[in-house]
C-alpha cells in the first residue's frame, strides 16, 4: 500500500546527489491556465535517471498515463535518504525493463525525466495541495476551487521544469495513453525542443466515446455522498465513487476477448470470511435478493480488486482533474486542422497502436500518422490485452523504441531556450 505517497507535494523531499528514481519537486511559479485562471506557486513532482550531458541534449522525457506516476523505473537510493523514500526508489517502476542501465532507454547514455502531470497527486500541485499564502482560502486544501487543467497547461509547466534542469532539447518525448496526448502536445507546443516524439496507444484528440467513458467515471465520484463537492479533506473520502470509476475505466483498458478467456461466466472462488452462499466452493451467482446481493462472478471480483487498489494510492479530486485534462485533449485546438497543427513539428515520429485497443482504437493512430509531415507508418503492438498492451507487451515496445533511437537525430540549436519555453 502506498497511501503515504498520495498528495506528496505537501511533503517536500530533499535533494540527494547520486540518487536516481526518487521523487523530487520543482517550483514552477505562477501558471496562467488556458481557462484564464491563475494557479499560483505551482509545483511539479518529478523523477530522473542518468546524467544530463554538458550540452543538455541527451534527455528523454517519459510521460505517464491517467493514474500513473513519475516512477517509471527502479531507482538508486542513497544512504542518507529517509527509509520511506529509499523504499519507494527501489520499487519496480511501471515500465520496468525499458528504462535503466543497458536498457533500450539506456540511463548510461540518456538523462531520463518523468514528471507528474499538473493536478496529479504524486508531487505536483493538485486539489489536495494547500492554497498559498495571500490567496483566498490560504492554508487550506484547494478542493472544489482547484481550476480545470488542460494537457497544454501541463506541457507548459513541464517545459519550465525542463528549462530549470538545463535541458536544451529532448532526443525523444515518449508517452502512452494520456501520456501520448502529452507527448503529442509537446511536439506541437515546442517543436524546437523535441527531436523525436513517440505517441503510443493514443490519438490526436479525445473522441466522443472517450468523453462518454470519462463522464461515467467522473459521475461515479461526484455522486459518492462523501464527495462533498470536492471538499472532503479532513473527513471521509469518496472511496466508493473512486473505486467505481476505476472499475469503469479498467473495463476499457482490457480487450473483450481477454475478459472472456480469463473470466467468462465463471463464478468467483470462495473468499475467506465470505458470507454469501457457496456452491461447490464458489460464490453462488443465482442466490440473493435486491437487498442481499448474490455472489460475484470472477470478472466482478477482478474489477472490485482494481477498484480497491486505486483508492489506496490516488486522490479522487486528482482523478477528476486529470480525467478532465484527457477530455480536453485536442492538439488541433486553435491551430487549424490537424495537419496544420503539426506542420511545424519536424521531429522524428513514432506512432504505435495496440491491435485490440478499444479505448484508443488503432484507426485513431492512423489518422494521426496521416496528418504528420512526411511518411509516418503506424507500428502495431500485437496483444490480447487491449489498451494496457502498451504496458504489458514490453518486448514489442522495446523493439519499436530501439529502432527509433538507433537513428542519429542531431540536436537543434536554440538561440534562447528560455524564450522557447516561455513562448
Question: What does this protein structure show overall?
Answer:
By secondary structure, this protein is of the alpha/beta class. It has 13 helices and twelve strands. The strands form three sheets. An eight-stranded mixed beta sheet has the order 1-2-6-3-7-8-11-12, sandwiched between helices. It is globular and about 65 Å long.
DSSP strand content: 5-15%
**What is the terminal separation in angstroms?**
41 Å
Q: What does the radius of gyration come to?
A: 22 Å
Structural class of the secondary structure composition? Answer: alpha/beta
> Widest sheet: strand order?
1-2-6-3-7-8-11-12
Q: What's the total helix number?
A: 13
Counting DSSP E segments of at least 2 residues, the number of strands comes to: 12
Largest sheet: 8 strands, mixed
What is the N-to-C order of secondary-structure elements (H for helix, E for strand)?
Answer: EEEHEEEHEHEHHHEEHHHEHEHHH
Return the average pLDDT rounded to an integer. Answer: 92
Overall morphology: globular
Residue share in helix: 25-40%
Identify low-pLDDT runs.
1-6
List key phrases describing it.
423 residues, two-stranded parallel sheet, 13 helices, 15% strand, globular, disordered N terminus
Amino acid at each position: 500500500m502506498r497511501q503515504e505517497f498520495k498528495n506528496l507535494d505537501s511533503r517536500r523531499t530533499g535533494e540527494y546527489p547520486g540518487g536516481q528514481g526518487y521523487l523530487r519537486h520543482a517550483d514552477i511559479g505562477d501558471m496562467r491556465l488556458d481557462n484564464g485562471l491563475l494557479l499560483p506557486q505551482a509545483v511539479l513532482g518529478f523523477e530522473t535517471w542518468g546524467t544530463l550531458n554538458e550540452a543538455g541534449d541527451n534527455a528523454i522525457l517519459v510521460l505517464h498515463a491517467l493514474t500513473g506516476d513519475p516512477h517509471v523505473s527502479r531507482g538508486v537510493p542513497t544512504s542518507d535518504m529517509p527509509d520511506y523514500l529509499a523504499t519507494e526508489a527501489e520499487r519496480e517502476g511501471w515500465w520496468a525493463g525499458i528504462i535503466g542501465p543497458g536498457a533500450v532507454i539506456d540511463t548510461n547514455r540518456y538523462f531520463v525525466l518523468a514528471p507528474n502531470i499538473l493536478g496529479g497527486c504524486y508531487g505536483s500541485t493538485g486539489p489536495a495541495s494547500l492554497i498559498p499564502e495571500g490567496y483566498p482560502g490560504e492554508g487550506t486544501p484547494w478542493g472544489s476551487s482547484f481550476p480545470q487543467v488542460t494537457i497544454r497547461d501541463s506541457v507548459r509547466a513541464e517545459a519550465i521544469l525542463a528549462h530549470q534542469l538545463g535541458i536544451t532539447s529532448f532526443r525523444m518525448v515518449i508517452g502512452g495513453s494520456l501520456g501520448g496526448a502529452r507527448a503529442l502536445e509537446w511536439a506541437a507546443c515546442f517543436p524546437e525542443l523535441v527531436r523525436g516524439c513517440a505517441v503510443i496507444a493514443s490519438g490526436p484528440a479525445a473522441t466522443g466515446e472517450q468523453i462518454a467513458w470519462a463522464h461515467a467515471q467522473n459521475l461515479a465520484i461526484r455522486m459518492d455522498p462523501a464527495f462533498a463537492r470536492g471538499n472532503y479533506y479532513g473527513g471521509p473520502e469518496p472511496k466508493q465513487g473512486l473505486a467505481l470509476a476505476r472499475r469503469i475505466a479498467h473495463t476499457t483498458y482490457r480487450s473483450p476477448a481477454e475478459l472472456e478467456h480469463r473470466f467468462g461466466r465463471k463464478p468467483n472462488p470462495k473468499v475467506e470470511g465470505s458470507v454469501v452462499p457457496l456452491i461447490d466452493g464458489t460464490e453462488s451467482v443465482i442466490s440473493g435478493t435486491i437487498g442481499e446481493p448474490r455472489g460475484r462472478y470472477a470478472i466482478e471480483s477482478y474489477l472490485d480488486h482494481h477498484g480497491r487498489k486505486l483508492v489506496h494510492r490516488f486522490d479522487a479530486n486528482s482523478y477528476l482533474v486529470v480525467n478532465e485534462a484527457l477530455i480536453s485533449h485536442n492538439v488541433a485546438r486553435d491551430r487549424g486542422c490537424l495537419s496544420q497543427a503539426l506542420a511545424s513539428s519536424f521531429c522524428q515520429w513514432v506512432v504505435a497502436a495496440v491491435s485490440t485497443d478499444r479505448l484508443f482504437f488503432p484507426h485513431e493512430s492512423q489518422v494521426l500518422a496521416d496528418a504528420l509531415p512526411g511518411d509516418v507508418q503506424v507500428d502495431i503492438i500485437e496483444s490480447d490485452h487491449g489498451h494496457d498492451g502498451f504496458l504489458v507487451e514490453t518486448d514489442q515496445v522495446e523493439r519499436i523504441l530501439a529502432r527509433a533511437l538507433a537513428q542519429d537525430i542531431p540536436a537543434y540549436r536554440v538561440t534562447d531556450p528560455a524564450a522557447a519555453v516561455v513562448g
